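Record type: monomer structure entry
Structure origin: computed from sequence
Chain ID: A
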Amino acid sequence: MIRITRTLAIPDSEIQEQFIRASGPGGQNVNKVSSAVQLRFDVAHSPSLSEEVRARLIVLAGRRISQDGVLTIEAQRFRTQGRNRDDARVRLVELIRSATEVPELRRATKPTRASQRRRLDSKQKRGDTKKQRRPVGQTEG
């Protein structure tokens, strides 16, 4: 069982892990040992997730999620299977945890009359400054 928040946990049965060969560091073992981890989590059909969390997770996952709704996380930062496995699980937990946070709705506000006036005054002042730089006799336009 992977605990995400106090109210949300994902059973190990919903997560599939496959060990593959990693590129990068590893010395002689890199061609012999499958130390990289490919973690798969079926977001679309997971009974553990609410609809809101599922929708936000699909958006957050971006291209790491397939058309069928399966999230794939590859971890190959470390030389050992165990550390890569932990890394993939930590990344999954962080992604789901960020999907559980409800974004604050932005309230549209109107600029105050004074701020609008200040903005227009500064634009006018800047235009006047530029006008002063023009050669004498050049027409406005």
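Annotation 1: Residues 14 and 46 are 7 Å apart (CA to CA).
Annotation 2: The beta strands are 2-3, 9-10, 15-20, 36-42, 70-75.
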